[in-house]
Amino acid sequence: MTPNRWPAHTFLDRVEPDTAARLLGLVPPRRVSTGEVLIGQGQNSEQILLLCPMEPGEFACVKVTSVLRNGTEVMLGIRVHGDIVGEMGMFRGSGASATVVACTPMAVRAYTHRTFRDFLSRHRDAWEAVGAVMGDRLATSDRYRAEFVGYEVDVRLARVLVELAGRHGRTVPEGVDLGVRLTQTDLGKLIGARTDAVGNALRRFYREGVLLPGYRRVIIVEMDKLRAVYESA
Q: Do 167 and 7 touch, CB atoms closer than 8 A?
């Protein structure tokens, strides 16, 4: 895969092309199937996983979830090819704080903490990329928590759909395909809302012609109108 084809803001997008090539060449890829658990919450696995597409030009993504003490499952985010997962364990020295599940067939490359740390010590741009990725994720988490309190479900949903489309979307004849397959329950976990509340917000957007309905597929027909929902809130 050529360097400029990694999705924007992912780990591999942030490093130099030679650095990306060296990291990809360190270990062979392992193919995984949709629904496969790559990392389990609480698991003491000293591995950092690099997400890659099954074939050049294909899309790959995982969802990151966590179960709270009361049994509620929340979604912490979506990661795509070019991203790393499990890196926090290298700094925390404890079990995984979240579960990572494949949403598509993909290939992953697994690095031990020592291997990855040694690689970072030899490539300053990779260290900086890890810091930038972790900083972005922390900022996104902080913003989501603030929005849970300050905004209604339709506003939160509009923001996350625009954000996901900006990162992972692709242009189709009808508009912009979100690029990731998420159920209403998945979207609810991502924005901290009940499934029925997400369904109500989606139906509003369908009626207004902002979104095109489809099974586990979201197509944004009117991006400016969707963006205006949260910009005017």
A: yes
pTM listed for this prediction: 0.81
- H/E stretch holding 165: helix 153-168
CA dist 146 and 160 (Å) reads 14
Element (H, E) at 142: helix 124-150
Give the per-residue pLDDT at 62. 92
Q: What is the pLDDT of residue 3?
A: 41
Residue with tokens 């597409």: 53
Task: Take residue 224 and report the two structure tokens written for it.
Answer: 């400016």
Q: Report d(CA 10, CA 83) in Å as an integer.
A: 5
- The CA R_g of the chain, rounded to the nearest whole Å, is 18
3-class DSSP state of 214: coil
- Under a CB-based contact definition with an 8 Å cutoff, are residues 214 and 178 in contact? no
Joined together, the tokens standing for residue 228 give 């205006």
